[in-house]
Amino acid sequence: MTTTPTLTGLSLAQLEIFLAEMQEPRYRAKQLFAWLYKHGVSSFDEMTDLPEALRERLKSSATIGSIEAISKQSSTKDGTVKFLFTLADGNKIESVLIPPRKGSIDEEKRLTVCISTQVGCPLDCAFCATGTMGFTRNLTPGEIIGQVQEIQNIAHRPVTNIVFMGMGEPLLNYGPLMQAITIFSSEAGMGISPRRITVSTAGYADQMRRMADDGAKVKLAISLHSLHNETRTKLMPITKKHSVEEVIAAATYYFEKTKKSIMLEYILFDNLNDSHVDVKRLVKVSRHFQCRVNLIPYHSIAFTNPSGFAAGLRGSPPEKISWFSKELRDAGIPTFIRDSAGEDITAACGQLAAKKEN
Ligand code: SF4
Fold first, then answer.
1. Measured between alpha carbons, how far apart are the two ends of the chain, in Å?
2. Within a domain: residue 185?
3. pLDDT tens, residue by residue, 10-63
4. Is 130 among the domain residues?
5. pLDDT of the residue at 304
6. Catalytic residue list contains 128
7. Entry pTM
8. Which residues have CB under 8 Å from 303's CB, separation 6+?
9. Cβ–ligand 1 contact at 272 (below 6 Å)
10. Residue 238 Cβ < 6 Å to ligand 1
11. 22, 53, 301, 303: which has the fewest Cβ within 10 Å?
12. Which range of residues forms the domain containing residue 161?
């Protein structure tokens, strides 16, 4: 059985090969690339500088995209919007549009999306709804890019910032992730500065080093949540494969190679990782590389009926979060407390969990 190729997600070089097979000149690939990514059109008829005969041939030999928004849910509290997408094979993924903070300088222009890289996730972090879905498959570059394009079409505004913090571990889908980032940040493509793109990892030390060696220009965020191996293993079983020490060594390597400050994400759990000792550990680590800490209030995933260790997790009380953040700031570490945007529609951090199949 032959399948019709999907063009969104192909690099310029891949479009050149595709068009060469149709006996089309090479320069057509640049035109097609611009229509797909700079203009983000959804039909071949809109590609007005391509000859009509070519547009007709493209219609019968390829499709533009392979992802469709089937529902959206808006928060009545903060303007966060959660999107449910269906993929060509029927799988579902979620992405989130995060509105700018009221009163921020770039409120008018900024449009941030949090996107997924896998259907489900194999890492099974105790605090995360996606982990409870298990892992189905990696997304293609086209499915990663499609999330951003669909959201900007619906919002009628260009996306300015991308965070890879949706479903899945981005660094387990390295090739498609990098291809999507190249297209997002290409001037001839979507023109989003890599400084406005953040890749968040659970701590895949080897791949963090690989990113640095590959000359990554994007920001790196690490879901840290504890610097104590035993506690972190309970929260994030990946710690058995890459210990805290390995993650910190890889983060140091990334910083030394890229000179980019690293964001450490830290969900505060009551009486688990919010003590004096935990603050001291974070302060010590921050001496290894330039970083800032993002403290995240825990968002309940009770809707997934967690059991065992996960069922007992509770967020630290607000006064403990304030104390923890003050300790870090007093030690000179830039520290932010993340808003719980989207919690009322289960779109906050760790709450994404699209149903596998309908
Ligand atoms: S927190 Fe991230 S890495 Fe962990 S299970 Fe959820 S999606 Fe996967």
1. 24
2. yes
3. 999 999 999 999 999 999 999 999 999 999 999 999 999 999 999 999 999 999
4. yes
5. 85
6. no
7. 0.94
8. 129, 346
9. no
10. no
11. 53
12. 67-345
